[in-house]
Amino acid sequence: MSTPAASGPTAVTVQILDKEYRVACPPEEQEALIRSASFLSKKMKEIRDSGKVIGTDRIAVMAALNLAHDLLASRSENESHSSSLSGRIKTLQNKIDAAIHDAKQLEL
């Protein structure tokens, strides 16, 4: 019995700021690519419509900077939450260990 061959990337057409782009993408990532392109286009339209930035290249760079800033802020926040959660887990583990130790002492 033969297994199906893995299909390679296929061209997907996405629209960003009223322009079409063809992008090679594996089939399993096409939906994510389309959502990403739509999100980027929305952000670029917001910048364009603000009237503060003129030119597609500048709009793209500003959108990229804003998205990079948001990503880094999110990562930092996640690291902070992770660190806090790790501390809380360690505290709970210590309480559990102490409770088990106390229970063993009562058995003696």
What's the helical proportion of residues?
55-70%
Shape: elongated
Order of helices and strands: EEHH
Mean pLDDT: 88
Domains (count): 1
Q: What is the top-level CATH class?
A: Alpha Beta
CATH topology: Double Stranded RNA Binding Domain
How many helices does DSSP assign?
A: 2
Characterization of the model:
The protein has 108 residues and is an alpha+beta fold. It has one domain (10-107): Cell division protein ZapA protomer, N-terminal domain (Double Stranded RNA Binding Domain, 2-Layer Sandwich). The protein has helices at 30-50, 56-107; strands at residues 10-16, 19-25. β1 (10-16) and β2 (19-25) form a beta hairpin. The longest helix is centred in the last third of the chain and has 52 residues, at 56-107. The radius of gyration is 25 Å and the shape is elongated.
Question: How do the strands and helices of this protein lay out in sequence?
Answer:
Blueprint: E1 10-16, E2 19-25, H1 30-50, H2 56-107
Antiparallel strand pairs: 1-2
Helix pairs in contact: 1-2
Highlighted features:
alpha+beta, disordered N terminus, 108 residues, single chain, Double Stranded RNA Binding Domain, two-stranded antiparallel ribbon
Please summarize what this structure is.
The protein is α+β, with helices and mostly antiparallel strands and 108 residues long. The protein has one domain: Double Stranded RNA Binding Domain, CATH 3.30.160.880. The protein has two helices and two strands.
